[in-house]
Amino acid sequence: MITSESEYLSSLYGKETHENEKVEREEYNKALAKRFPWIIPPEYKKNGYYGWTWLDAMEIGWRLAFGVQMCEEIQKELERINYVDEYVVLDVKEKWAELRWTSGGVPIKSKIFDIIDKYEKMSKTTCVDCGKQATYESTGYILPLCESCVERLIKDYDYLTKDNFVRIHPVMFNEGEE
Questions:
Q1: Range of 9's domain?
Q2: 53 backbone φψ class: left, alpha, beta (φ>0; ψ -120 to 50)
Q3: Model's pTM, two decimal places?
Q4: How far apart are CA 52 and CA 50, in angstroms?
Q5: pLDDT digit string (tens) for 19-60?
C-alpha cells in the first residue's frame, strides 16, 4: 500500500505500471481527497475517478519538497474561513521556472493568496527534479535545478553541457517579502 508522496511518485515513474499499482495510487489519491476535498477536479470526483490530482500537475521535485505541506496550509486556512466546499483549483503548472497555482473565488480577507505566493516563490529555488535547493537554472526552457540533477542531465543527454545551465544564487524569501 502506498503511504507517502515518495512511494506514490516512484510508482509513477521509471518503470512499467501494473494494475495493482494503479489501484494503490487511486487509494492514495482518495486518502488525499479526504484530507483536501478540492485536490481532485470536481468532474473527476463526480465520476468516481481518483487516478489524478492537482498535485500530479506539480513538478516532482516541488511536490516532494512542499506539495502536501502547501495543501495542508491551504486546507487549514479554508477551514478557518469556512470555505472548504467552495474552494476550486483551476490550474497548477510550471511557468518561467516558477510554480503557478491558480484558484478561483477565494474571499479577499483570506490568507490563501499569501500561502500560494509563499510556495510560488519557494519554487524558484527548489529543484524541479528532486526537491533539493536549486543552484542552477537551465537556459532555453528555464527550470531551477540542483547540482546533482544538472550533472545527471549532462551525463544522460550528450547534447547538454555546463553551458546549458546558469549558476544561480538562491534567495530565500520570508513571508511577506518580495
A1: 1-57
A2: beta
A3: 0.85
A4: 6
A5: 677 788 889 999 999 999 999 999 998 999 999 999 999 999
